[in-house]
Every structure is written in structure tokens, then in C-alpha cells.
Design a protein that fits this description.
By secondary structure, the chain is of the alpha+beta class. The protein is built from 14 helices and 20 strands. The strands form five sheets. Strands 16-13-15-14-18-19-17-20 form an eight-stranded antiparallel beta sheet. Strands 6-7-11-9-10 form a five-stranded antiparallel beta sheet. A three-stranded parallel beta sheet has the order 3-5-4, with helices on one face.
């Protein structure tokens, strides 16, 4: 029996068997054997979900040996990639082929399968999450069959599996709709929080990719505006020294030190938060898109994130700002605010509505439950939908009210996995048991 732990340390499991398939045939064999013996099975990604979505005490499928690009067509932009490939590796391989993903989140350690399954997204008022870039999927179903789905082929399975939570089968390959590589200009720096809030909707509209970080207890927000340059524009990246100072020292080492001090002496945390806000610095540069989208994180944290109707963002942030000073325990890390366009993916947090994403964080080892629960209630009052890979307390009954296609998803799930081969405790809570 081995031990599996996620990145944040919020989930631990002890699978009896860990399988490491190297082909679709081996993957199908693992699933078939588990089905015959009525064992449950879950696929493991890189552990970057904060929930126990991947946890199992029975059979785990480690996709770490099932990686790489299967095919890439520069003309159509269609790229088929094995499910265990990390976004970091995928971005590098796409760049080598003159291609890029249209939008990305700010962490690239996830596998493509895990990122798709949990609804990973970036920011941009005209752009959807990673699931909207998926053109086709290949899955191993509970009966061991290998099936493909797309908008034309098994469209209901495709609509469900693009954010499938690992509940419908094990993803074998993902076909992405990519585009020619492009350069992003980046403008990052501190701005007064009130100014950012006043101009939020205009900033989101006028920039390709807009987001900001609000530092509790401080007056400034860290604002990021990323915009596409014309094809052929040469990148002007940060120097290695500037990148090292800004990201390795300031955003990781220095922030980690402040957090450790605040964890040891909580009463200092508000002062440290004000210091962090006041110490923010600006920078402008341009680089290949994936190098701008992605930020390296070494400070460990726990996170909860809700997608709310974009028109509700000020109300939610107003209540969140009023909440923080009343908490019994201080908050060490900033609140991140992003946007996304409405989409048609059944369990996407942006299904059917333009959305704002509000993500709250706490440094590992510091109390967070009161903070996260209160935030969940604030977001829930406007129909907020929790990110599937981040911490929340909602169950199937509550989530059914927030997802118009929830029962359609369940119908597909019952069709392809009638005996709950791919279930676990997390899915029993958020989707409900199949029996």
C-alpha cells in the first residue's frame, strides 16, 4: 500500500494498487480488471487539486508514463496529447512546433487531464477556460471500451466529459484547438484598490487578459494586464536577473518569509499585509504567451474559488472586504480576481454566463475554515459556483441548483459508469452516489 498526498497537503490517500500504464491498451486493461472485481479506480494527475477528487483507497492510475504529443497539425491547429502530459511540457512542445494554447491559468504543473477534468481556467473577458479549447476526447469507459467523443460524435458525452471530474472514465488523449504562437505584452504593478474596483468592468473589457490581486489590510492591488502583440513582434522579456529578483526572491522567498512570520505570530499579520501591499513594484515586458501566463509558485497555500455572475463581483468583494477584519484568524495571502466568457460546457463554472472568479488563499498551516466557509456563503448568495478542484463545502443538492445541466451530466454518468467504478467519497458528495 502506498501513500498519495496532494500538493497542498489537504488530501491523503492510501491506494492498495498503483498502476502505471504506458499505452491505451494497458490503460483499458487496468480499468477492465478493476471492473471485473468491482474495485473502484481513480486517475492521478499531479496533485494540484486542493480537494480529495483523486483520492482512492483501492486502485490508482498514475498517468506519469503516459505523456507526449501524439499528433500536431500546424494548418488546423489541432493537437492530440496524451492525458498524463503536464501543461509545462505541453507548452514547451507546442512552442517548438510554432503553436500555443489560446489561454492558460497561472500554474503549469497540472496534467492536461487533471486541468480539463476540474475546469482549470485563466482570465480574459472574451476567453473561456481550458475546456473550451478541447476539440475531442478519447476515454476508457467502465466496461474497458475506448471511445472518442467530439461535438459531432457522442456529443452528450463530449459536453459532459470536457469538465468530467474523472467521473465518466479515464481520459486517454485530449485533442486541443491551438493557434500559431503569439507574444503577450505584460504590464504588472500596484494600483489603488478603489481605482481598480471603479474601473473593473472597463479594464476587463479593454484588455485581452486582466486580473488583480487584493492584499487584505493593504490599500493597493497588484494589477496584471496582458495583451497580444501583432504577429511577428519580437519579445522583450525580463532579464534573467530581473526575473530572479522579482519572482524567485520577492514573490516567493520574501513572501514565504512574511507568511512564516505571520503564522508564528498571527497578531503581526495585518501589519505584514500592509507591508506587502506597499512594497509592490511594477514591470513591463513581453514574451511568448505561456511564459507570461504562467507564474512559478513555491509558497504553499490552500485555496477556495467561486465563479460569480460578473455583474455581482463588486457586491461579493464588498462583503469579503468587510468580512476579513472580523475573522478570528488573520489572512496571509491575497485574493485573486479574474474573468471568463460564458461557455456551453455542462459542469463549467462559467456555463451560460459571463463570470468573475474570486479566489481566496491561506498559507499552509494557518487556520482557514472560518474564512472559507464565510466566503462560500457570500458567493452562494449570488449563485456562485465553486471551482471543482478547490475547497468548498457544497454537496450535490446545492450544486444541482447552480448548474442547469447537472441532471444531464448525471444521466451520462449513469449510462457510462452504472456501477460507480470511477466514484470516490468526493464524487459521492458533489455529484451524489449512483445507487
Amino acid at each position: 500500500m502506498s501513500t498519495w498526498t496532494n500538493w497542498a497537503g489537504t488530501a491523503v490517500a492510501h491506494p492498495r494498487r498503483v498502476h502505471r500504464p504506458r499505452s491505451t491498451a494497458e490503460l483499458a486493461e487496468v480499468v477492465t480488471d478493476a471492473a471485473v472485481e468491482r474495485r473502484q479506480v481513480r486517475a492521478l494527475g499531479s496533485g494540484h487539486s486542493f480537494t480529495d477528487i483523486a483520492a482512492t483507497d483501492s486502485d490508482a492510475i498514475d498517468l506519469g508514463a503516459w505523456t507526449g504529443i501524439v499528433s500536431a497539425d500546424p494548418e488546423t491547429g489541432l493537437v492530440t496529447v496524451r492525458s498524463g502530459t503536464t501543461l509545462r511540457t505541453l507548452n514547451a512542445e507546442l512552442a517548438a512546433r510554432g503553436l500555443a494554447m489560446t489561454n492558460l491559468g497561472d500554474i503549469d504543473a497540472q496534467t492536461i487531464a487533471g486541468a480539463i477534468a476540474t475546469g482549470t481556467h485563466g482570465t480574459g473577458a472574451r476567453f473561456g477556460g481550458l475546456a473550451t479549447q478541447v476539440a475531442a476526447l478519447e476515454l476508457v469507459l467502465a466496461d474497458g471500451s475506448v471511445v472518442s467523443c467530439s461535438p459531432e460524435r457522442r456529443p452528450n458525452l463530449f459536453a459532459a466529459a470536457r469538465v468530467g471530474l474523472g467521473a465518466l472514465g479515464v481520459l486517454s488523449t485530449v485533442t486541443l484547438r491551438c493557434e500559431p504562437a503569439f507574444v503577450l505584452s505584460a504590464q504588472e504593478g500596484p494600483e489603488p484598490l478603489e481605482q481598480v474596483l471603479d474601473g473593473f468592468h472597463e479594464f476587463a473589457k479593454s484588455n485581452d487578459h486582466f486580473e488583480f490581486y487584493w492584499f487584505p489590510y493593504g490599500r493597493n492591488a497588484l494589477v496584471k494586464r496582458n495583451n497580444r502583440l501583432e504577429p511577428g513582434a519580437p519579445p522583450e522579456p525580463l532579464s534573467n536577473l530581473r526575473r530572479f529578483v522579482d519572482y524567485t526572491i520577492m514573490e516567493n522567498a520574501a513572501l514565504g518569509t512574511l507568511c512564516r512570520v505571520g503564522r508564528a505570530v498571527p497578531r503581526l499579520m495585518p501589519s505584514l499585509g500592509r507591508l506587502s501591499s506597499a512594497a509592490l513594484s511594477g514591470r513591463e515586458y513581453s514574451d511568448a504567451s505561456h511564459r507570461v501566463f504562467v507564474t512559478q509558485r513555491s509558497v504553499r497555500f490552500v485555496e477556495s474559488e467561486f465563479a460569480v455572475p460578473r455583474e455581482s463581483v463588486h457586491d461579493v468583494l464588498g462583503e469579503l472586504r468587510a468580512l476579513v477584519p472580523t475573522l478570528a484568524d488573520p489572512v496571509a495571502l491575497p485574493v485573486e480576481v479574474r474573468v471568463a466568457a460564458a461557455d456551453d460546457v455542462w459542469l463549467s463554472t462559467a456555463y451560460g454566463r459571463d463570470s468573475a472568479y474570486i479566489a481566496i488563499h491561506q498559507y499552509v498551516g494557518m487556520p482557514y475554515r472560518e474564512y472559507f466557509a464565510a466566503f462560500g456563503e457570500i458567493a452562494g448568495a449570488v449563485g456562485g459556483r465553486p471551482h471543482w478542484g478547490k475547497l468548498h463545502d457544497l454537496d450535490a443538492a446545492a450544486l444541482r441548483e447552480r448548474y442547469p445541466r447537472f441532471d444531464d451530466f448525471q444521466a451520462v454518468r449513469r449510462e457510462v459508469d452504472p456501477f460507480g467504478l470511477f466514484s470516490n467519497a468526493y464524487l459521492d458528495r458533489v455529484l451524489g452516489p449512483l445507487s
